[in-house]
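Friendly challenge for the regulars: who can give me the structure tokens for this chain first? No prize, just bragging rights.
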Amino acid sequence: MTAAATTQRAELSKQAVQSTVWAYGSFVSGKFLVFISTIILARLLLPDEFGLMGYCIIAIQYLDILNGFGVGQALIARRDKVEEAANAAIVSGFVSGMLLFAVAWFGAPYLAIFFEDDRITTLFRALAIVIPISAVGAIPSALIQRSLRFKAKFVPDIGRSVAKGIFSVVLAWQGFGVWSLIIGQIAGEVVATLILFALAGWRPTWKFDRRVNREVMGYGSSIISIGIAGALISNVDYLLVGKVLGATALGFYTFAYRIPDLVIRNTNFVIGKVAFPLLAQVQSDETELRVAYGTLLRYVALFAIPAGIGLALIAPRFIDTFFPDRWEPATIVMQLISLSLAISAIGHLPGIIYKAINRPEILNWLSIAKLIATGIVLWFGVRWGINGVAVGQVGLAVMFVIIDVVVVARVLRFGARDTFQAIAPTLAATHVMAGVTVLLDRGPVPDGIVGLLVIVLVAVVAYIATLAVVSIETITSARTVVRSAMKKS
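First reply, four minutes later:
Bragging rights claimed.
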């Protein structure tokens, strides 16, 4: 390997970590606020009210896939005529947002009929206003991501979480019930969109190009089909639980999913925001793509796997410490979902690779296959209640990761052995951490916050110490790159 290639790889690794540090810092800060508000809201609201919000969020997520026709992703992937692409994107975003708001308004009664709850109509119509707001805000957000300015994304992400938390908690305390969640969601989106425009330093112009318009819309159409399948896969469990088991069961399931989602799956979202523009920059160099993919996979595993296993082990103590007794039915579901998300984290990056190299059709076919499998498995799982659905999620996570590893090996020549080598130190350290966690949980550690903190802190120390023994280069490399990235961030 030449000195120039070595330097380029080091720079790529530093850029990946620098972007991830700021993106994840934004994520952690915002999600910590969401976590605090969740603890408070769980004491002020009932499972049924969380379930009603869950019904509305399911439908909004499906409509949001069509929002902007997927041109935000196309904007990130573009290498030329970015201004023209941004103008095309803002127009399509506004138009699609208003059309989808109209669809939501007139479709709300049918949603209420589907879930057999008349309260949904008014709630969903109110929440649907976030669709055009987020469509417009997606353009300055994409421009910021495209330039890897994740430090700038810190403010709008925090602003969204603060506004959402404050409005939701205050209104819930005043007795607004489920409306506190609806209004909080709208307030957070408004605040984030205003901040994004202020920070992006971009304003739409009348500069358009027909060829660019066609290219942006063409790329976006592929992303939309992938997004629809992805949204169906992500929400089949919510649909089945809500339809078959009712609002209260959906409330428990939504609540059980919320903490693992905050800790683990949103990490995938953060990594995705960093990985897509980063991988798009080296899309024509297969060797550098493999280097970037391996780097990102290693850092995903370093956090996602121990976080998922650890949360699964401490979930009973965690719920008992922070939440009222009425949320106890969510315990087993939280444990199983934590495991499934830890496993799924390994399979998140391959899909980003396909989009970054302009091969979204691969992800399209995989998404369709996964959707069919998800529907079949969870349809049987729902017969055993929310616990059965959660067990199905674990099985699906294992199946999908195997498929993703096989496909990415063919596309990128990054095989199963390469994947195992990237995550092997994390697996070894997580095994020790899990043993320590179980011993402490069953030992003389007191109940309450103090005992929970003791278990978490000792488990983290055990994880880092083991990682230092089995792969000290992983720690030193990460520490060196992070320090270098932060100095130049």
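Residues 3-487 form one domain. The radius of gyration is 22 Å. Your move, everyone else.
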